[in-house]
Amino acid sequence: MRELGRIFSRRRLVLGLALILLLNGLLFVREQRKNDYGLDLELPVSGGIIFFDGTFTVTQEPVDAWAAYQRYSEWIDRARELPLADAVAMLTDEKATLSAKIAEDTDTEDDRLDYVAVNNLLAQTDYLTGYGGWLENIQKNKDNLLTFSIFNDPDSFSGRNILKTADEFEKLQGVELTLGTDGAVESFMSFRLTDYFLLLVLLLIGLSFLEERKAGLWSVVHAAPNGRLKLAIRRTLILFSTSVVGVLLLYGTDLALGFSLYGGIGDLDRAVQSVETLGRLPMLTTVGGFLIRFFLLRIAAAFLVSLLLWLMLTAINNVKYTIIVAAGVLAAEYSLYTFLPVQSAFNIFKYFNLFTYISLSDLYTNYLNIDIFTYPLGIRSISQLALIPLCLLLAAVCVWVHCHKKPAAGRDLLGRVAYKLNSVTDKLLRRLHLFGMELHKTLWIQKGMVIAALLVYVVLGLSYTVSIPVMSSAEQAARQYTTQFAGPVTDGTFARIDAEQTQLDNAIAAHEDAQAAFDAGLIEYPELDKYAREASAARTKSEGLSKVRTRAQELRDKGAAEGFAPWLIDETPFESVYGSRAEANQQKAALVAVLALTLLLAGSMAYERQSGMTYLLRSTARGRGALILRKLLLAAAMTTLVWAAVYGMEVYTLLTAFTIPSFPAPAKNLSMLAAFPLNGSITLWLALLYAYRWLSLFCGAVLVLFLSSRVKRLEVATIAASAVMLIPSVLCAYVGIAALRPLSITLPVAAMPLILSANGSLTRTTLAAITLLAIAAVSLVCVSVQARGINKKSLL
Amino acid sequence: MKLELLNLTKQYGNFTALDHVNITFTEGIYGILGANGAGKSTMMNLLTDNIPRTEGQILFDGTDILKLGKDFRRVLGYMPQQQGYYEHMTAQTFLSYMADLKAIPKKQAKEEIEKLLEITNLSDVRHKKLGGYSGGMKQRVLLAQALLGDPKVVILDEPTAGLDPKERIRIRSFIADLSRERIILLATHIVSDIESISDQILMMKHGRVVGMDRPDRLIENVAQEVRESVVPGHFSLEDVYLYYLGE
Hints:
The complex is a heterodimer of chains A (796) and B (247).
Chain A: H1 2-8, H2 11-34, H3 65-80, H4 84-103, H5 109-146, H6 157-170, H7 183-190, H8 193-208, H9 211-214, H10 218-223, H11 229-261, H12 287-314, H13 319-339, H14 348-351, H15 354-358, H16 362-365, E1 369-372, E2 375-378, H17 379-404, H18 415-430, H19 434-445, H20 448-461, H21 473-484, E3 487-488, H22 491-519, H23 525-562, E4 567-568, H24 572-578, H25 583-601, H26 603-610, H27 614-618, H28 625-657, H29 682-709, H30 714-735, H31 746-750, H32 752-757, H33 763-788, H34 792-795
Antiparallel strand pairs in A: 1-2, 3-4
Chain B: E1 3-12, E2 15-25, E3 28-34, H1 40-47, E4 55-60, E5 63-64, H2 65-68, H3 70-74, E6 76-79, H4 91-101, H5 106-119, H6 135-146, E7 153-157, H7 165-177, E8 183-188, H8 191-195, E9 200-205, E10 208-213, H9 215-225, H10 237-245
Parallel strand pairs in B: 3-8, 3-9, 6-7, 7-8
Antiparallel strand pairs in B: 1-2, 1-4, 4-5, 9-10
């Protein structure tokens, strides 16, 4: 199979496929982590009740999801040893005990893990015990609905649908559902990205069939004795093999990782309905049987999709238009699949759709009949029945098209339209100066607009705040008092604290009096209980108030010593956005910013070399210094664009999520900025922080320009720049290789992790800034030297 | 106007690409003939300061071009041997961009671009992207950009490569019609391209200038040297080429 060898001899394709496989596995694992391994981690609310209005609620520190899943596995093993009813009783008792402990604030970490495990197991057993009732309800609904005149017409879609649904689920009566670890199958069925990775693999293979057209060899291939039928059959077989291998590798990875994460293969002989996701599948089979069936159908569906893609890609002679049309068809199909309502009269287009075959799991997790000339037809049946005939038909059409399509018969139908369009853009571009043209090259020619659009999309999904848990009622009270007394710390502040303290002391004293009165038989227990509750709340508040007084005194002393005005500040908004708990958010935002900037600028210098323009540009009056200056301005503009998008959103979140009256307060009043070397306000500190982030990004941008100037091709420049800019940061932030911190550009861009680890002092950030500036300066000199053509020897 | 190459040398490691060349160019068309690797492109790259020289000087009206820098590049028109262009730009946009790089005012650039597109017969395809052009069309666009800004020194490295005979004659005539108040250096190994239009012809071999004179004088000199072996009246510049540059 030389054709197969030709396709896979392209290193970029093989690298791309390997990357897809790797990404699929990584993202699958990440998705499981993100979804807390399918567990509901919510805990009951604990802590005392504070009797005044406030904005804070006590938030429990979330339990570790992986530890909770391990505990869940232990509990499920225990539960499976018992009959289901006994297991439910045991779990219910356990949940009640654990809930009480948590409510009374006497729980331990172990109790919380047990609670999450038991709570999730109970939800699972609820489904299992309720399944029989659900099946009975379907039969009862049939009888009830048929009593209504609008449903009981046996020749209408509604009547037939009710009967068909009841009939299909009737055969599940008596099916025995058993408890088991469902995580692997649940995650396998719900991880949609694999569907799109498979589509990408098929698309890449389909595009490789266009290579001969791009290389101008189509006529040669078409004229060769084996270039028609034989080649077409070989390509059909390649598509089939790719479908088999692609499905086995991509979905096999998901399943293998799922089994590995969720406690092994487990019992595959259980009825498939035991897995809640597959509860609506009216088919008598085991979990194992279902998986084999799913893989076979997945392969057939992948083959069908690959044939469709091949047909779309080969039906038009011009490669560019082919890709446009293929993209258009895919977009139309996706829109119909996604946006067409289930109830629509045209829902046949939703389910008889390319994307139905891509997102195959929908057919097994949903039960739906659609109206085909008043006959209800299951969405699964439609797709399954049509699969093999469609594959054969499409294979025949593809082979026919390949054999009969004439390489030289294409007419450039859109050429005239493109020419007219170009004449308009030419008029606009003629007015642009050098910087405008650099922008045009970056945003339009090098597809920077796509990166910018993706950046906006990603930024809208970024999280900038974290919730700051309040660990005790006293802490809750302290925060509420801080909000109440927020502002400059003066004698008045202490007077107000003292007044509040007196009220609290009175409440405690009143309880003591009431106790004496109760002991003397002067008051009843309910009245004493009221005093007791108020006194209890007062003690908690008093503890909180004491913390506030201590903090106010600390700030007053520090302010006097260091010459700044002490302010009591509610630090929650700042901790939530800039604090150490928000470090993951900051790293992610920095990573997005650096990635976007790298992708935007990686081609800037390499594009000149790839186009063979370097010598020509350097022979012009403005092709050296002026051009480099414009490139730097471009880097600054792109830096500003990325910075504004990523950090503009952060500022917007800060201003909209919180009410902050403390911007004029000196920054040193914030605990995290205790060692801040300037006596400026929080506003000044924020301005410096964002300016510093811009500068770090700009230094990175100059480094990208330098890397771009060292390579001759856009793709290589993008890969090289991404590797240098991102790999150390990713390995440092997400794999935990601390040795790479000095090479991680996201650290100075995020800035706060450096400031916080230095306890607010600017030592580390200053060092990082100097390093970055030095790197940027060296890069700049190198780029300039290269652009000016100075003899390197003369510099030494 | 005078462009002087004084003792100009370029070495790549141990290989000498240009060996102590001394030439003075004044207004006129200079055809530079030489086989591949003779040093023509190296000389062009040194003249455009695209590679650093090992030794020697290039003076434009008495001042070194490195010292003149931008001022020299302002009067320079250069068409490199390798086709360099942005395939996603149209001819119109590409020429506008090059005009901007050459610091030509917008209004003047517009007029010049119109004229050059007409001369190079590209007016009807000016809004087509360069990626869709044939090799000859790309060559003409590059020639057009070299002539933007009415340059005083025009360096054309293989300007007719890839052109069909009709296009070659057209471009040759255009170069011949260019004002004589400029220095035009035209490097090629196609003798017929320069035979009829050059005022002077340089013969280059192994990085050295082995002959330089008017075409008729070169023919005459060589004819005298080898008069026994050729039929009088049938001696051409190709024979001169073979005489000087043949192995």
